[in-house]
Design brief:
Blueprint lengths: L3 H4 L6 H25 L1 E17 L5 E12 L5 E11 L2 H9 L4 E9 L11 E7 L3
Parallel strand pairs: 3-5
Antiparallel strand pairs: 1-2, 1-4, 2-3, 4-5
Length: 134
């Protein structure tokens, strides 16, 4: 009579169960992080002078830009410093359109994500459309 259950050690089934639970935790954690990174926190538009648009990065090349929104004159002697809006672009066509508009007044439409992946861009603001006022 061959009794295999008598020859197995009592802890031999724990390792596959531990690996399965660990893999499940990693997968659920990644899916949760992916959901958080893709979640749109806010949407809106900003207008100003496009001062910079560039492609940068060592391994992951991203498109980054800056818009000078401007400052305000409070009275004759006080000026509120200019505000710079930093953004990222994922669409290559939008990047090329922005290159043509550098130095001009533009309106950019963006989505702000809760948290971005490091390969998506430097900011949490992603421009998906632009317009150039006449």
């Amino acid at each position: 009579m061959n009794n295999d259950s008598a020859t197995k050690s009592p802890g031999s089934n724990k390792l596959p169960k531990f690996l399965a639970i660990s893999a499940l935790i990693v997968i659920v954690g990644f899916l949760l992080y992916y959901f958080i990174c893709g979640f749109t926190y806010s949407e809106g538009s900003r207008s100003g002078i496009l001062t910079k648009i560039s492609k940068k990065g060592y391994v992951f090349k991203t498109y980054e830009g800056e818009i000078n929104i401007g400052g305000l004159y409070q009275n004759n002697s006080t000026i509120v410093p200019t505000t710079i809006f930093y953004f990222s672009v994922q669409d290559k066509k939008i990047y090329y359109d922005l290159q043509q508009a550098e130095g001009k007044r533009v309106i950019v439409y963006y989505k702000q994500v809760f948290k971005n992946f490091f390969w998506q861009g430097d900011t949490d603001y992603f421009v998906y459309q632009i317009s150039i006022p006449k």
